[in-house]
Specification:
Blueprint lengths: L4 H14 L15 E6 L14 H7 L7 E2 L7 E2 L2 E6 L3 E6 L13 H12 L17 E6 L4 E6 L6 H5 L7 H4 L15 E7 L3 E6 L20 E6 L3 H10 L4 E5 L13 E14 L10 H9 L3 H8 L4 E3 L25 H10 L3 E2 L5 E3 L2 E2 L1 E7 L4 H15 L4 E7 L2 H6 L6 E4 L8 H5 L17 H11 L7 H13 L3 E13 L2 E2 L2 E2 L2 E2 L5 E2 L2
Parallel strand pairs: 1-10, 1-11, 17-18, 17-19
Antiparallel strand pairs: 2-3, 4-5, 5-7, 6-7, 8-9, 9-10, 11-20, 12-19, 12-20, 13-20, 14-15, 15-16, 21-24, 22-23
Protein name: Peptide/nickel transport system substrate-binding protein
Family: Belongs to the bacterial solute-binding protein 5 family.
InterPro entries: Peptide/Ni-bd, SBP_5, SBP_5_dom
């Protein structure tokens, strides 16, 4: 997927390492089972509070758990929480009895409180601040004797329990020296990290004292693998090969490589909309995207019906909402009427009116400044996305915009630090509409996480109205807020591509968009 020689070499080494011995999970196997899992990207660091990437979650989920579990298309279940009571301003979680950290120490209500305090600290720089919990006006009370943690928000939240319940909880051993979290796991998850070779592999062993999983899952649950060997396989083609040869038990495959897997008999085959193609605009002072007319012109120049199928390798559909059917609430919102239509002539006319004059070289300029944009996108994206970015470059050239594709292996660092970019193709997946109030709100970098420099007051007002309503009653209000995001071009939704998770000799499920370790079962 990455196009550099170094990355390609790393993929080759990993593939050879994985294929050195066959996967040991076999139907009807007896005794402790080992399964092999291929993931598409290396997390880099394992800190579950500072690294919010899909790659990080895919690996750290073996060692960390949150208060709630989010099964696909269903209401959340208790994970670390045994029960909870919530309003729009207060939620009290009662923890399950007997939860043990990986070091054998009991998890306390104070540990939960301390995790949120660590995540909220400015020096931590957690991207979850303002997303999984309010950035301001949140008070937390921990009662270790009663095993309860109470969160009170100064501002109303439609999904206070569902939002707070998603943050990974770190045990006291990790909070005592957070620097260890980059390379070690200090949580309550069912697995301990036994070995790691960053960039290549991670090996997890089932804990023998795990007894509080969802649906009464414990270390003794039949079919739960004793060892999970995770390898970094960036190539869809390699992942498909390993599935076909039985050298991987679970792998995610995207694009057209799935076509050749259609005749294979898999124990599990789950297509998920994990790669939403979303274009965000840098609206900071001094950037061309600060001008709404420019954002509108760029949006009108995007032929979503052409770009989308390229990005998704022909598997996907146009996005009309920021919350997919895999979300936890408001999954039927539809803001298609608020998305600008494809109209190259209207786009050019808008730029003319805004004073951007086309030069002899076909590139527009205003006050001596050329209309040039830097198009940022993840370097680890698929070949389809890379081709879509190149198509966008061609489309923008038709209206006199000089667009420069710029792949970045650390694109989140660029956008959160206020770095150099004008538009970014970012595959951000959320399960609640309220998540976007945190993602596109707050202070501008470097003081806050409002990385698009969104100043749409209409959106903020509509968010306030939505947050005052609880649960499903708030969905219409959240759609109105989403309409404002689309019409004011804080974000342009393009296409939702899909990936497919395959299981050879194993069954499994998801929590949100992440493979849930305690759902894995070696099949008989």
């Amino acid at each position: 997927m990455r196009r550099s020689i170094v990355a390609a070499a790393a993929v080759g080494v990993t593939a050879l390492a994985l294929s050195g011995c066959a996967a040991t999970a076999q139907p009807g196997g007896e005794g402790p089972q080992t399964i092999k899992l291929a993931v598409q990207s290396d997390p880099g660091t394992l800190n579950p509070i500072t690294n919010a990437t899909n790659a990080s979650e895919s690996v750290s989920t073996f060692g960390y758990e949150s208060l709630l579990f989010y099964p696909t298309g269903a209401e959340p279940k208790g994970l670390l929480a045994d029960s909870w009571e919530a309003t729009t301003t207060t939620v009290q979680f009662t923890l399950k009895d007997g939860i043990l950290c990986v070091d054998g120490e009991p998890l306390t209500a104070t540990d939960v409180k301390s995790t949120f305090e660590y995540a909220a600290a400015d020096e931590t720089g957690s991207p979850y601040k303002g997303v999984y919990f309010p950035a301001e006006g949140l008070t937390i009370e921990a009662d270790d004797a009663a095993n309860t943690v109470t969160f009170t928000s100064a501002n109303a939240q439609s999904f206070l329990a569902e939002t707070i319940g998603a943050l990974p909880i770190v045990c006291a051993s990790g909070l005592a020296d957070p620097s260890v979290l980059d390379t070690e796991l200090h949580g309550t998850g069912a697995y301990s990290l036994e070995d790691s070779s960053p960039g290549q592999s991670y090996t997890f062993a089932l804990r023998d004292d795990y007894a509080w999983g969802v649906d009464d899952t414990t270390s003794k649950t039949e079919g739960l693998p004793a060892t999970v060997e995770v390898s970094i396989i960036e190539s869809d083609s390699t992942a498909a090969n390993l599935l076909q040869t039985g050298e991987a038990n679970i792998a995610e495959v995207g694009g057209s490589e799935r076509d050749r897997l259609g005749s294979t008999d898999f124990a599990t085959e789950l297509e998920v909309p994990l790669r939403p193609g979303l274009i965000f605009f840098n609206q900071a002072e001094g950037r061309v995207g600060h001008d709404l007319a420019v954002r509108e012109a760029l949006a009108q120049a995007v032929d979503r019906e052409a770009v989308g199928p390229v990005a998704s390798a022909g598997r996907g559909e146009q996005i009309t909402t920021l919350v997919s059917e895999f979300g936890a609430a408001c999954t039927t919102m539809d803001s298609s009427s608020a998305i600008p239509s494809y109209d190259v002539e209207a786009a050019a006319a808008a730029l003319d009116e805004a004073g951007w004059v086309e030069g002899a070289d076909g590139i527009r300029a205003k006050d001596g400044k050329p209309l040039s944009i830097l198009m940022l996108y993840p370097a680890s994206e698929s070949q389809g996305v890379t081709a879509a970015i190149e198509l966008l470059q061609t489309e923008f050239a038709k209206i006199g915009v000089d667009a420069k594709p710029t792949p970045s292996a650390a694109y989140t660092d660029v956008i959160f630090s206020g770095g150099d970019w004008d538009i970014v193709w970012a595959p951000i997946f959320t399960s609640l509409p309220s998540d976007w109030a945190g993602i596109l709100g707050g202070d501008f970098p470097p003081n806050g996480g409002n990385w698009t420099y969104n100043a749409n007051q209409e959106y903020f007002d509509l968010v306030g109205e939505a947050q005052a309503l609880a649960g499903a009653d708030s969905c219409d209000a959240w759609q109105a807020a989403q309409d404002s995001l689309f019409s004011n071009l804080e974000v342009l939704p393009v296409y939702s591509s899909t990936s497919t998770f395959y299981g050879v000799g194993v069954e499994f499920g998801m929590s949100k968009s992440i493979l849930a370790p305690t759902t894995i079962r070696v099949t008989e």
